[in-house]
Write a structure and sequence with these properties.
Strand 4 and strand 5 form a beta hairpin. Helix content is 16%, strand content 27%. The strands form 5 sheets. It has a 7-stranded mixed β-sheet, sandwiched between helices. Strands 2-8-7-4-5 form a 5-stranded mixed β-sheet. With 517 residues, it is an alpha/beta fold. It is globular, with a radius of gyration of 22 Å. The chain folds into 2 domains: 241 residues, Immunoglobulin-like, CATH 2.60.40.1930; 230 residues, Rossmann fold, CATH 3.40.50.
């Protein structure tokens, strides 16, 4: 791919533990950065128009990895260059640190991009850092509960500029010796009022992260797909390449962002919706922050929640905030946060329970060793993970007169091909006013039913707000196919952008916006 012009790189001699002097001056944006600490972003104009104005700026596809490689001995790791960030989310005016290892030793650069629409390019280049002198950082020992907690030396510390709007940002790491690349990823959040909060599912990204080799929440040293307790994972480590369903090279260092969530964000920003971004961690620690939106959006594969997350979102619904679960297998595993080796809170977590009744998921191995107790996920979502959890189906209209189908022309029994998968929701709760808007049997392969039944639902909140449940991890596949996107195909095959899925999404978002007015 021919490299397009972007911001000029700089190569002042950097400190081995920090960014170059020129980069530090560039990152420290004076009074605008200080203003951003209170949630103000110094980009001018009406706050509700931030996304439109941001996406009018020049975009580039240079954010995509062009030379990436995985060590076959580990199946997931890119030891030639890999890294992680000090925070999952950070506000403008705050600092984020980058921790990078190169093996063999190589100088390297970090190019930072905000992900969005940008005329179809998918990203905008916002900063270049380095070059830095790389080092081989130590692989951490196996700790208690099999945690792998890197305590690497920092290579760069960046103060987030005040003119960086909320969004998902990737840092493209490039080792200059041989050109190998991978990502680091973080979220810039703000505190402004917005129509929609896009909650990234980074707890689930980390739960499935097998870096350096087989050390996900799903491996207890004996079983590769363990679903019990006594296993802990840490955010202090790189994201390895995604470990399920498909070969997705862009997932190296970026969790599951490019798999299930980026197509939704790409479409939202292409339409100019007033959206701001948060992490699972923000939902956990900042209940008041949820009240600044008209709607909260859970996207893709949002499996792992703490009880605090559940209670905070439940309280937001009670206060009149709408929620869209454009996700599958959401709010399934209950987690407990812990501190890292240096005492930093919320940098590790373990699975301690299930947000569902005993036997309700046709138990995975060892799941019955965990607590199954209320609250159940379907009491929040409308439906939840149930047996056999995995599978696929067409997303079949069950209530064509419902307002979500306005403008789609869909008839009862008509389906959007392959949109349900690979994990889904069923078993609707007995919530007053709950309506089943789409439902169909699921299959393990075309023509092979697996005794499942997905159920998409809508129920009313107490103040005219709504809670929508799409009942599939793959909803975003029906919205867009941004650069680099790899379409899943297992159990069934979604067919990509569909005007009906897009119109249903518009109807739901508009209902949320009006209810919150």
């Amino acid at each position: 791919m021919q490299r397009k012009p972007s911001q000029p790189k700089f190569s002042d001699t950097p400190s081995p533990r920090g960014i170059s002097r020129r980069a530090a001056l560039k990152g420290a944006v004076g009074m605008s950065a200080m203003a951003a600490l209170s949630g103000c972003v110094s980009i001018g104009g009406a706050p509700s128009d931030i996304v439109r104005r941001e996406n009018a700026k020049p975009g580039t596809r240079d954010w995509m990895l062009t030379k990436t490689r995985i060590d076959p001995a580990t199946k997931y790791r890119c030891p030639w260059i890999e890294g992680y960030c000090s925070h999952t989310s950070v506000r403008a005016g705050e600092r984020i640190e980058f921790f990078v290892s190169t093996n063999p030793v190589s100088s390297f650069t970090i190019d930072i991009y905000r992900m969005g629409y940008y005329g179809g390019a998918g990203g905008r280049h916002v900063q270049s850092l380095g070059p830095f002198q790389g080092v081989v950082q130590p692989e951490p020992a196996v700790g208690k509960k099999r945690v792998r907690d890197c305590q690497w030396e920092s290579c760069a510390s960046l103060k987030i500029p005040g003119d960086w709007p909320s969004g998902v940002y990737v840092g493209k790491l490039t080792a200059e010796r041989e050109g190998w690349q991978s990502y680091v990823i973080f979220i810039v959040r703000d505190d402004r009022r917005a129509d929609y909060l896009f909650q990234c599912s980074d707890n689930t990204w980390q739960a499935y992260n097998r870096w350096p080799k087989q050390f996900a929440l799903y491996d207890n040293g004996q079983h590769e797909w363990w679903w019990g307790g006594d296993v802990q994972v840490s955010f202090n480590r790189p994201y390895g390449k995604y470990c399920q369903i498909m070969d997705a090279p862009l997932s190296t260092g970026s969790g599951e962002w490019f798999l299930w969530e980026f197509p939704f964000a790409y479409w939202l920003e292409s339409q100019g919706y007033d959206v701001t971004y948060i992490s699972n961690h923000d939902t956990h620690v900042d209940p008041r922050g949820l009240l600044r939106a008209k709607g909260i959006l859970s996207i893709g594969h949002d499996e792992y929640w703490s009880i605090e997350m559940y209670e905070n979102v439940k309280a937001a619904i009670g206060a009149g905030v709408s929620v869209g679960f454009f996700s599958g297998n959401a709010v399934c595993g209950r987690i407990l946060h812990g501190a890292d080796a240096r005492g930093r809170k919320h940098r590790a977590f373990e699975r301690v329970g299930v947000f569902g009744p005993p036997g309700g998921t046709f138990e995975f191995q060892a799941m019955n060793s965990l607590r199954h107790e209320r609250p159940y996920a379907n009491e929040l979502i409308g439906a939840h993970s149930t047996g056999p959890v995995t599978g696929g189906a067409d997303w079949v209209c069950a209530l064509p007169e419902h307002w979500i189908f306005a403008g789609t022309g869909m008839k009862q029994g008509e389906g959007i091909p392959g949109l349900v998968g690979w994990e889904w929701h069923g078993d609707p709760a007995s919530i007053p006013g709950l309506e089943v808007v789409a439902t169909a049997p699921t299959q393990s392969a075309p023509g092979k039913p697996n005794k499942g039944q997905f159920t998409a639902t809508v129920y009313p909140g107490p103040r005219g707000n709504i809670v929508f449940n799409a009942a599939t991890c793959w909803w975003a596949d029906g919205l867009s196919a941004p650069p680099g996107y790899v379409r899943p195909s297992v159990y069934t095959s979604p067919q990509g952008p569909d005007r009906r899925a897009q119109q249903i999404t518009r109807n739901i978002l508009e209902k949320m916006r009006r209810a919150g007015a």
